[in-house]
């Protein structure tokens, strides 16, 4: 191998393992609501917008909100309600909704929604004041949309479509950030996919249809996770790992920070700390290309988590910092790796743990 090719391969490898150097921690000052499901409940760990299960096929398992299809219909029919009046998104001048999720690749078939805040016009769409992230649509692109002012009909939405990545419907880990910015009176919509900006759309008004798209017009009627947008749609199936709401529009560098950080949820809110150090099996496994790795710390400890191929070559560094006691979850994106068996190792200074995981394309 000549030197030029060696330099190219080294540069590509560094892009895989080194986080974005411009990444900026958004902190917690503007973090208003956070659902990690890490304590076995659907409670809001920052605010008071605690979730309430609707239907029997929804539950919390291994730190995830899980919705599964009904055995009789093979369709999802359960979702999580959160109180829109406590969220009160209309009191914000900007908002950012951050979501980590892994869809069921088979049973999302028709206009499925990860989160929806506002009002659906009694299920008809007419007179709705809401915003939603539709991960699966029949027109084959995910969409972040917004409509307010009690407008007439469906044609009053402003939205960002992901025409590059299509539907967010594969059995993989997704990271999607949706912003409503205060850029002028009306503002703009922004959507990020896995840390990269998908697109922006201006929020517009139309007096003839009653459309008045401003964040302060959002209805406090409800909040829903893993639901649908209108009555004829089908609720979403899969695993929601984390949803967070900020009362600001996250910058591109702040979105990059959260993506580089991965799904990391800290100390159990019940105070039940792990008794021993442990590294759990990744989920899903096999995976393509995203998966989650969970680990337990009985006390604050330095933690390194690295990925190796079967030849012992280091291919990624997921974590290298001091973490507090509790259960933690971190996402791994293997999209730049080949199919095969990989080893992930956790080093806490005094103990080293390792497990195998399988990337299947």
What do you see in this structure?
- This protein has 361 residues and is mostly beta strands.
- It folds into two domains: 229 residues, Jelly Rolls, CATH 2.60.120.200; 95 residues, Sandwich (Immunoglobulin-like), CATH 2.60.40.1930.
- The strands form five sheets. Strands 1, 3, 4, 6, 11, 12, 13 and 17 form an eight-stranded antiparallel sheet that branches. A seven-stranded antiparallel sheet has the order 2-5-16-7-8-9-10. A four-stranded antiparallel sheet has the order 21-20-23-24.
- 43% of the residues are buried.
Fold topology:
Blueprint: H1 3-17, E1 31-35, E2 52-54, E3 58-61, E4 64-67, E5 79-82, H2 84-87, E6 95-103, E7 112-118, E8 130-136, E9 143-147, E10 158-161, E11 174-181, E12 188-193, E13 196-202, E14 205-206, E15 211-212, E16 222-228, E17 238-246, H3 252-261, E18 278-279, E19 290-297, E20 301-309, E21 314-323, E22 326-333, E23 340-347, E24 352-359
Antiparallel strand pairs: 1-17, 2-5, 3-4, 4-17, 5-16, 6-11, 6-17, 7-8, 7-16, 8-9, 9-10, 11-12, 12-13, 14-15, 18-19, 19-22, 20-21, 20-23, 23-24
């Amino acid at each position: 191998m000549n030197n030029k090719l060696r330099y190219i391969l080294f540069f590509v490898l560094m892009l895989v393992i080194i986080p974005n150097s411009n990444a900026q921690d958004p902190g917690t000052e503007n973090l208003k609501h956070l659902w990690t499901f890490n304590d076995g409940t659907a409670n809001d760990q920052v605010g008071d917008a605690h979730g309430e299960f609707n239907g029997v096929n929804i539950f919390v398992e291994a730190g995830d909100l899980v919705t599964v299809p009904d055995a009789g219909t093979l369709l999802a029919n359960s979702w999580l309600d959160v109180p829109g009046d406590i969220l009160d998104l209309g009191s914000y001048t900007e908002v950012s909704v951050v979501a980590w999720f892994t869809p069921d690749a088979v049973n999302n078939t028709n206009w499925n929604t990860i989160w929806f805040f506002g009002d659906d016009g009694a299920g008809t769409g007419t007179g709705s004041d809401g915003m939603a992230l539709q991960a699966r649509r029949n027109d084959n692109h995910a969409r972040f949309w917004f409509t307010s002012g009690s407008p007439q009909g469906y044609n009053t939405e402003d939205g960002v479509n992901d025409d590059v990545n299509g539907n967010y419907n594969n059995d993989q880990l997704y990271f999607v950030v949706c912003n409503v910015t205060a850029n002028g009176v009306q503002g703009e919509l922004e959507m990020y996919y896995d840390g990269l900006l998908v697109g922006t759309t201006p929020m517009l008004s139309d007096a003839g249809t009653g459309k008045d798209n401003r964040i302060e017009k959002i209805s406090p009627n409800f909040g829903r996770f893993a639901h649908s947008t209108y009555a004829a749609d089908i609720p979403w199936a899969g695993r929601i790992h984390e949803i967070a709401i900020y009362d600001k529009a996250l910058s591109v560098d702040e979105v990059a920070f959260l993506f580089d950080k991965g799904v990391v949820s800290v100390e159990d809110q019940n105070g039940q700390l792990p008794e021993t150090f442990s590294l759990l099996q990744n989920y899903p496994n096999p995976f393509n290309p995203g998966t989650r790795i969970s680990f337990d710390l009985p006390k604050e400890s330095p933690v390194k988590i690295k990925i190796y191929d079967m030849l012992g070559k280091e291919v990624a560094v997921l974590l290298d910092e001091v973490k507090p006691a509790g259960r933690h979850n971190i996402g791994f994106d293997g999209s730049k790796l080949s199919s095969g068996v990989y080893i992930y190792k956790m080093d806490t200074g005094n103990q080293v743990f390792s497990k195998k995981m399988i990337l299947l394309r």
